[in-house]
Design a protein that fits this description.
Helix content is about 35%, strand content about 20%. By secondary structure, the protein is of the alpha/beta class.
Amino acid sequence: MRTSAEGKTEKPGLPGFEIQEALVGLALDKIDASIVKYLSFFSEHIPLQSVTFLHVISSPKQAWPFSAVFPEKEVELSPEKEAEVAQAMKAETKKLPPHLAGEKLKYVIKDGSVLDEFVSLSAEKNAGLIIVGKRPGHRSGVLAKNLIRQARTNLLMVPEQSHGHLRTIVVPIDFSDNSIRALKAALAIKYAAGKGTKIIALNIYQRPDLLSYKVDMTPEQFERNIRENHEKGFEKFISEQLPGFEKEIHPLLVESGLPDIANQILEQSLEAKADLIIVGSRGHSQLERLLLGSTTETLLNINEQAPLMVVK
């Protein structure tokens, strides 16, 4: 393991975590203060080569029954309105630290569908990360869910209550390829952030039904046997998929008889004082993106405390 002059560590065989282009949504309301504050903290640990702030003036297209004969002319932003919005965006970001200044920052103003403009601009700039905020009480998380489905990049959702710490990263795992991607991202972020960051791999597994098995054990012995096998399975998974990092990942195996996994993930993450939750998405293909897992979707809905990153 190598240590840089800044005290950050690098481990052989682990790809670095550096964002060439981050696309950050600004709503021009009070949620922006939380996003800018978290971005200031996040960028101190994770290098951001360029940051584009996007504000979309939502203007859903009205139905026009004669469009086939008399096509509607698109209404463009006036130079005066664009200058006014740009000035407001710069005012929102004036508290960014010196390492995020000058040519690193760009401001883009669009008029139309918020989702479409985010997807289009992220593809145009080949963004490595999209950052959006979440207001308290807004349980739907519609924009974040649709961005994950349609954009080809990672997403970071920052609730208004987020704090600037990176001491504990929780990665919910189900032993799939998604879990591996999420754990690799967590490890890369851990080493980019430096010493003192802990990774917890959280697995919620179902409580077995003793009546379904013909075994000569007491219920306590049976459940202990299931847990021991689960622990061995976890150790095997890490040693095979992430050899050399066994001591860097702390298991949190929680037995449950409840079907609501997302709420249990959030409860366990908050109990562990998670500063960041990282989950893996289904992948890059259109079908995989459309099949956003119900657990991830629910987690985006209900989480109002900890920043949540979805990696691809």
